[in-house]
Design goal:
Blueprint: H1 3-9, E1 16-17, H2 23-33, E2 45-51, H3 53-69, H4 75-83, E3 90-97, H5 106-126, E4 130-134, H6 142-147, E5 154-165
Antiparallel strand pairs: 1-5, 2-3, 3-5, 4-5
Helix pairs in contact: 2-5, 3-4
Length: about 190
């Protein structure tokens, strides 16, 4: 699959199953992620790969963090939180590493991480896998960040759920480019 086709056909897919990418496919996807635009070559990203028992452990982290902020959390909600990481056979945790450079605003570090995640997702798609980028309150929860070992200068930029699509991708209607891209002549 060429780059243009990958970009135009990639969709987020929430229904993911085994197999997850093998080590070679995952390494190729990370090699693509590491080619993201990166002002002053700060390398403002890192990743954690969770699979197998680590997914269940993340579910327990989600429950503990939610109970800390809501002691009245009912068991049905706790069970839903436990199962969240099990929606895919592999999760990549994308982390932005905030490094100080007087010429690089913090927003550029976040944008670089976003570009890296997009490269990762496109590379997975080009190899026949699917993904879904998820955030939400748990991605910003201090207890979740601590459990995953994030440093004070790091933020959790998303949980990238990865696997083989278990349903057909939804059809995407192309957007009219002229609604979003205009010439500016001053």
């Amino acid at each position: 699959m060429d780059a243009i086709e990958a970009i135009l056909t990639r969709t987020s897919q929430g229904k993911l199953a085994e197999p997850a990418p093998d080590q070679d496919a995952l390494q190729r996807a990370f090699a693509c992620a590491l080619r993201a635009p990166d002002h002053r070559v700060l390398r403002p990203w890192r990743y954690l790969v969770l699979r197998g028992a680590a997914l269940a452990k993340l579910g327990e982290v989600f429950v503990a963090a939610s109970r800390a902020s809501n002691p009245a959390l009912d068991e049905q909600e706790a069970e839903r939180l436990r199962r969240m990481p099990l929606r895919a056979p592999l999760i990549v945790v994308a982390i932005t590493v905030h490094k100080y450079d007087p010429k690089v605003p913090n927003e550029e570090l976040l944008l670089s991480t976003g570009a890296a995640v997009q490269n990762l997702m496109l590379a997975l798609h080009a190899q026949g896998y699917a993904s879904m980028w998820r955030t939400g309150p748990l991605a910003h929860d201090e207890q979740v960040k601590d459990a995953l070992g994030l440093a004070d200068n790091e933020t959790l930029s998303g949980f990238i759920y990865v696997g083989t699509p278990s349903t057909e991708p939804r059809k995407v209607s192309p957007l009219p480019v002229h609604d979003y891209a205009k010439d500016w002549e001053g």
